[in-house]
Amino acid sequence: MTCKFNEARTNAEELLSIFRIYKPPIPNNLVSKIFSNAQIAYMDFNDNIYGCCYSDSGRWQVFINNAYSRETQRITLFHELYHMLHGKPAYCKRTIPGTIEEFLADIFAADLLMPYKWFYVAWERTRDEKRMAELFGVSKREVIRRLDLFQTSPQPRAATKPRSETNTGASSQNGRFAENMQQHAQEYS
């Protein structure tokens, strides 16, 4: 589980590096840069559903619950991006594998929208949950969840470049992920 957790974090850092995003907020159009044929729709759902996605003949369909705040919709959009990138859209939270994948998608979305190093530096400057939420384009609730994680995590090493730009010892699986994202970035350019 720790390996998959770290992989989700590394994948988020690699995306930021590949698409040359070095400051918040992360643009929502990153999803359409990666999947140019994705159809993203905002609609009303049952309150239990934040969003979902599936692939239909190679075209991703993404549905985001319109009942939630813009900030919650953003975290949901990037949660669904995790599923799209891994080609595994539908999970049942009532199963152990489903629960794990949903957790990893949440970690990926949080690490993409609030990269650990950026978040740490911004928190040291502001010490204000509301300003942090505005800076990163997320809800105050997500900022608080991130701060709770800091209570159990060590300080980041450096707050300059993403790890993917300084770490040459990436695993082969992360290397394939980076290659796929490089291809998407070149197709977009």
Question: Please, could you describe this protein's structure?
Answer:
The chain is mainly alpha-helical and 189 residues long. The protein has one domain (2-158). The protein is built from nine helices and three strands. It has helices at residues 2-18, 30-34, 70-86, 96-113, 116-126, 129-136, 140-150, 163-166, 172-188, and strands at residues 39-43, 51-56, 59-65. The protein has a three-stranded mixed β-sheet, covered by helices on one side. A hairpin with a 2-residue loop joins strand 2 (51-56) and strand 3 (59-65). Residues 157-174 and 185-189 have low confidence and may be disordered.
Secondary-structure blueprint of this entry?
Blueprint: H1 2-18, H2 30-34, E1 39-43, E2 51-56, E3 59-65, H3 70-86, H4 96-113, H5 116-126, H6 129-136, H7 140-150, H8 163-166, H9 172-188
Parallel strand pairs: 1-3
Antiparallel strand pairs: 2-3
Helix pairs in contact: 1-4, 1-9, 3-4, 5-6, 6-7
Keywords, please?
single chain; 189 residues; mainly alpha; three-stranded mixed β-sheet; 9 helices; disordered C terminus
What would you say about this model in short?
This protein has 9 helices and 3 strands. The chain has 189 residues and is mostly helical.
Low-confidence stretches: 157-174, 185-189
Q: What class would the helix/strand composition place it in?
A: mainly alpha
Distance between the termini: 35 Å
**Biggest sheet details:** 3 strands, mixed
Helix content: 55-70%
Helix run count: 9
